[in-house]
Amino acid sequence: MKRKLFGALLGIGLLLGVAGTASATIIYTLDENNIGPPVPLGSVSLTLLDSTHATLTFTSNTAQDIFFVGGGTSVGANINALSIALISITGDCASCTYAPAGSGNIDGFGSFNFRVTSGNSGPGGRSTTISFEIQNTGGTWADEFAVLTNNGSGFQVGAHIGLCPTGIGGDCTITGDTVNGGPPVLETPEPGVLSLMAVGLLALGFTTRRRQS
Questions:
Q1: At 12, phi and psi to the nearest 5?
Q2: Domain of residue 36, residue span
Q3: Which residue of 26, 146, 155, 172 has the fewest C-beta atoms within 10 A of its own C-beta?
């Protein structure tokens, strides 16, 4: 009976592990910049939804009065795919018009093959968060770390930012750009990993109990 129960639990854990490995979140820190205020200036969370779909969410460091601003680029990423399709773009700026801006340079940090603009860089064109979902139409991604790749200057994500001490509707004293200074880190263990850990603990419990009896 115990063996059957353990086998069933192991099977469930493995199924959950296989199902869960496709969805995980990694975090990039926007901690290299050309405007000078304390770092980090923001972060980017990347979630792999399945082998061909991923979302990227850019969040500015509002504690430092940093905002993503428009112009040619608000945010950008160097996506590791032969071809992609944009599913959606959202942000928290009610008056902004978010749109893909194609490939191009983020000043001083090289060219990125996917960028988003939110319009002008005035008080009506600033965001604290911008998110977009993309589809890999030219292949598949093995895991979340494969979604992006370094550009020619060694960076994967970047943004055009403003330091605006009087808030999102006030004057920006400095504008510039920021990118990830290091590699991403895994936000939390994947669901599949957690499932397998649970099965391992159950197995250890069964073994210990059996020895005691």
A1: -65, -45
A2: 22-189
A3: 146
213 contact partners, CB below 8 Å, separation of at least 6: none
The answer to the question of residue 6 being in a domain is no
CA–CA gap between residue 193 and residue 197 (Å, rounded): 6
At 84, phi and psi to the nearest 5? -135, 160
Number of structural domains, the chain? 1
Sign of CA dihedral 84, 87, 92, 97: positive
3-state helix/strand/coil string of 124-136: HHEECEEEEEEEE
The count of other CB atoms within 10 Å of the CB of residue 147 is 24
Rounded distance, CA 100 to CA 98, Å?
A: 7
One digit per residue, pLDDT tens: the chain, 213 residues? 545 444 444 444 434 444 444 578 999 999 999 988 778 999 999 999 999 999 999 999 988 899 999 888 999 999 999 999 999 999 999 889 999 999 999 988 999 999 999 987 788 789 999 999 999 999 999 999 999 999 999 999 999 999 988 887 888 889 999 999 999 999 865 555 444 444 444 444 444 455 555
Residue 106 sits in a domain whose CATH number is 2.60.40
Phi-psi region of 110 (alpha: psi -120 to 50; beta: other; left: phi over 0): left
Asked if 175 contacts 121 with a C-beta cutoff of 8 angstroms, the reply is yes
